Amino acid sequence: MKLVVAVVQDQDSNRLSSALTKNDFRATKLASTGGFLRSGNTTFLIGTDERLVPQLLDLIRDNCRSRDQLVAPVSPMGGNADSYIPYPVEVEVGGATVFVLPIEKFHHF
Amino acid sequence: MKLVVAVVQDQDSNRLSSALTKNDFRATKLASTGGFLRSGNTTFLIGTDERLVPQLLDLIRDNCRSRDQLVAPVSPMGGNADSYIPYPVEVEVGGATVFVLPIEKFHHF
Amino acid sequence: MKLVVAVVQDQDSNRLSSALTKNDFRATKLASTGGFLRSGNTTFLIGTDERLVPQLLDLIRDNCRSRDQLVAPVSPMGGNADSYIPYPVEVEVGGATVFVLPIEKFHHF
Ligand code: NI
Ligand code: NI
Ligand code: NI
């Protein structure tokens, strides 16, 4: 058994949850912020057999991979019109930080 | 030292907290959801000496064990009367998922 | 790689966050309560190279060390005037509980 701790951006969290359920992985989710990723993220705790870790990592990568996304311009609201960018901007979104931890014992009551 | 991570249903969380305190275990609690257990659960982090792990697991099992419970019927509220069940139903409640992790170093400042 | 789990009082949490960022450590923060420390604390998850663990522990100790603090008297509000203490009181604040966990694999997507 391994305990996989995955920190995932909130915008990818629901998609990853669904993918985990479809593939019979069970996860506990904790709301978290900052640091590894831009703030607003979810920390998944997933206990799994060692032989399923590669499949689980594939699922995380496929659903949370860091990628560029075009963001539509937001018109300035009562603010600094100098900072207004009148065309879509490419920003990096997503990404996951994953730790695979050894487990000495696993129990289910 | 071991780090025991226990995911426990919310309805058992306060009883487990009290039992841990009475037995001199110190726990940090994190609100969590989904996955291992029906949503609405609490993740306990408990650092403890290796020799106390069996006592701790007993406490978790005794306070969080999965069991059947009779749930009184709830009268339908402005809803689908077809789904109304006019007698108590047995549902499974409780249960805990527990990981015992090795610790390389423990510090208290 | 190690995963450092640090439970820190809320009043030291922002200062530690800033110190971590200045020193190029990336942390995920989870709101937590009780147990190891008086309730209202933050659990930091920090992945780092083994050789940086001593520097990280120094940062945590320097920013969260348990210390005595004078607390100004609070005048009783509609309450028991018998319990009013008309002079500053020294209370212990701060403190951190830190677990260093081994990591088998670390991934960043
Ligand atoms: Ni990244
Ligand atoms: Ni179960
Ligand atoms: Ni202390």
UniProtKB/TrEMBL annotation, chains A, B, C:
Q: Which UniProt keywords apply?
A: Receptor
- Which InterPro entries does the protein's record reference? CdAMP_rec, N-reg_PII-like_a/b, N-reg_PII/ATP_PRibTrfase_C
Indicate whether Chloroplast appears among the record's keywords: no
Instruction: Tell me which Pfam families the record gives.
Output: CdAMP_rec
Q: What is this protein called?
A: Cyclic-di-AMP receptor
Which source organism?
A: Savagea serpentis
